[in-house]
Design brief:
binds ligand 0O2; 5 strands; about 210 residues; flat
């Protein structure tokens, strides 16, 4: 067995032997989801517009954590992984309009107990392949029976059009092992530009009504 495979296996074993490691990420997700649901319902009541279409979440699988830790050259221990990986817990917020993406991000990071560690705005500056989303790395306290743990969560905020593109691109190519053929890549980037146009036209309609 290669050194990499051994390292991979020792990380997945360590995670499995300590179920509490992933549990705090699950709790952090639950807290964030509650915050987002409250924002969604309250904003809808007061502004007659719900800025959240739907929310999904996931805790990364032990195998995927091990693979990313290996790619990042992290030590094969859980403390190094908790420190070095930002997306063990992930929440994806899909919004109707681009303005909602920023509004939800501002409302969430305005909470006293939500610490913003990093903000990557791939809406303002899309990735070369056309990927657009607003990424926040936040840290929130999880109150356990004997201690408080401050847990990192990656929050991805995007519109329905951005989600459509990213979901299908992920299925087609993201993490594609071979080189993506150039004409396919160009086609996908063109489609991303179309999705951006749709967002901008729908945003205009939304502004005219609100
Ligand atoms: P998965 O399978 O979705 O979990 P960095 O923190 O900047 O060193 P990292 O962690 O790659 O590097 O951060 P980045 O660029 O913010 O990407 C984090 C996540 O955003 C990815 O998680 C994807 O979910 C999503 N993402 C980023 N780029 C793309 C893209 O081009 N296409 C699609 N469909 N999704 C993208 P993972 O763990 O890479 O993947």
């Amino acid at each position: 067995m290669s050194g990499d495979a051994l390292l991979d296996e020792s990380v997945t074993d360590a995670i499995r032997q300590q179920p509490g490691f992933l549990l705090v990420y699950k709790f952090a997700i639950e807290e964030l989801m509650t915050k987002l649901r409250i924002l969604s319902e309250e904003f809808d009541l007061t502004h007659r517009h719900d800025p959240i279409e739907h929310i999904t979440s996931r805790v990364k699988r032990p195998e995927a954590i091990a693979a990313k830790a290996l790619r990042r050259g992290l030590a094969a221990d859980l403390a190094a992984i908790a420190e070095g990986l930002d997306d063990v817990a992930g929440v994806r917020v899909v919004c109707p309009f681009v303005s909602d993406v920023y509004q939800v991000a501002d409302m969430l990071t305005g909470h006293d107990d939500v610490e913003l560690l990093r903000r990557k705005d791939y809406v303002a500056v899309p990735k070369d392949n056309g990927y657009r989303s607003l990424h926040l790395i936040v840290r929130i306290p999880v109150f356990l029976s004997d201690r408080v743990e401050r847990v990192k969560v990656e929050v991805q905020l995007r519109t329905i059009a951005m989600d459509f593109w990213a979901t299908l691109e992920h299925k087609l190519f993201y993490k594609y092992d071979s080189q993506v053929p150039a004409d396919f890549a160009t086609e996908l980037t063109d489609v991303a530009a179309l999705a951006a146009q749709l967002d901008s036209r729908m945003e205009n309609l939304h502004r005219r009504l609100h």
